[in-house]
Amino acid sequence: MSNSESGLRAVSDAVRNCDPTQPRFIIETVYIAIMSNTSSPSSGRTAERTETLSTGHTVELPVRTRATMLGATFAAPRADVSELLPDRLRPIRATPTGAAAVTLLSVEYHEVAIPEMDPYDEFVVGVPASHTSPSTVPYVSALTQATNGYVRYMPVTTEPARAFGAEIWGFPKVVADITHDDDGSVRTTTVTVDGERFLTLAVDRPPSTRMTDDGFSYTVKDGRLLEVPNGIDAEVGGWPFTNDVSVSFGDHPEARPLDALGLGPRALGRVSLDGTACFYPGRRV
Predict the structure, then answer these.
(1) Residue 135 has pLDDT above 60, yes or no
(2) What is the DSSP letter of 48?
(3) Nearest Cα to 5, choosing from 182, 134, 163?
(4) Is the preceding peptide bond at 23 cis, omega within 30 degrees of 0?
(5) DSSP string of 76-89?
(6) Considering the entire predicted model, what is its pTM?
(7) Mean pLDDT, to the nearest integer, of 74-83?
(8) Rounded distance, CA 16 to CA 268, Å?
(9) How far apart, in whole angstroms, are the C-alpha atoms of residue 261 and residue 269?
(10) Residues forming a β-bridge with 6
């Protein structure tokens, strides 16, 4: 076993044995240790370029945004999660028993560096996954790769936002109604697509720390798998093994395979981000 893998396993044990009744700084320390021991496969970034959308917007890549994100990562049966992935991608190992993970993430884009592009909301259904064979350590992998991986479904609130993601990268965006209800530190988000409720997600915002990091998403465009690098400079939060979440699915067809996974009531972790995120041109995998 390599030193880095041994270190990650030590952090995994610390996370698994975390007592949520202990002072917050202890669990924050574990979270920071996790993040500092993780690297992204997207260290190289492709060159800048310009795209024109069907809406007439001109997009200069990379694109800088200012966003607020809040969500949770849940364990789910590996075989069922594999069915949500395209060929060549495999779900990460999220628990010692081999379960995979699914992340549900509510996003508000307050600013997007595209001329005449209005702010918009988004909801991401993501599957932490990889096309390589990385050393995935239970618990640690689920927390550190919560917002990395394959984008399964991505409702947004405007047509320009849909075109922005779908036409440049192939993200599976659809125009939807997304509403938020804030009660203290808890945000409840409801997504309705074509008049049918897709889901309702409630998450208590976790403690955060300032950090910069690189990440990635996978998508399929024109039948080809793409990896889309991103970078963040933000307040990033995380809290492992939490009951401070709830999710319920509606009758929309996209909700059915997710509802069948039996997500919740306990999440592997809550995640949040408040700051800038930069998205780069995708590259074929």
Answers:
(1) no
(2) P
(3) 134
(4) no
(5) E-HHHHHTTSPTT-
(6) 0.85
(7) 96
(8) 10
(9) 17
(10) none
| Pairing mode, strands 283-284 and 267-279 | unpaired
**What's the longest Cα–Cα distance across the chain?**
53
CB of 221 within 8 A of CB of 170? yes
Per-residue model confidence as pLDDT tens digits over 176-224: 999 999 999 999 999 999 999 999 999 999 999 999 989 899 999 999 9
- Cα 130 to Cα 36: distance, rounded to the nearest angstrom: 20
Strands of the chain, DSSP E: 49-52, 58-61, 63-76, 90-91, 100-112, 120-127, 129-130, 149-156, 173-175, 177-183, 186-193, 196-204, 208-221, 224-242, 245-249, 267-279, 283-284
Query: Any long-range contacts for 25-30 (C-beta under 8 Å, 24+ apart)?
Result: 27/207, 27/239, 27/240, 28/207, 28/209, 30/240
Pairing mode, if any, of strands 173-175 and 149-156?
parallel
Average pLDDT, stretch 143-147? 60
Structural domains of the chain sorted by starting position, each given as residue range(s) with its CATH number in brackets:
3-42+52-284 (2.40.400.10)
Pairing of strands 224-242, 208-221: antiparallel
Q: What Rg do the C-alpha atoms of the chain give, in angstroms? A: 18
User: What is the chain's length?
Assistant: 285
Percent of the chain beyond pLDDT 70? 78
Q: Is the pLDDT of residue 140 over 90?
A: no
Q: Which residues contact 25 (CB under 8 A, 6 or more apart)?
A: none
Neighbour count for residue 281 (Cβ, 10 Å): 18
Phi (first) and psi of residue 281, to 5 degrees: -55, 145
Q: Which residue has the tokens 């390589």?
A: 132
Kindly give, in sequence order, each residue whose CB lies less than 8 Å from that of residue 8, ignoring residues fewer than 6 positions away: 37, 135, 137, 140
**Model confidence pLDDT, tens digit, residues 88-100:** 999 988 888 889 9
d(CA 38, CA 55): 38
Contact 220, 238 (CB under 8 A): no
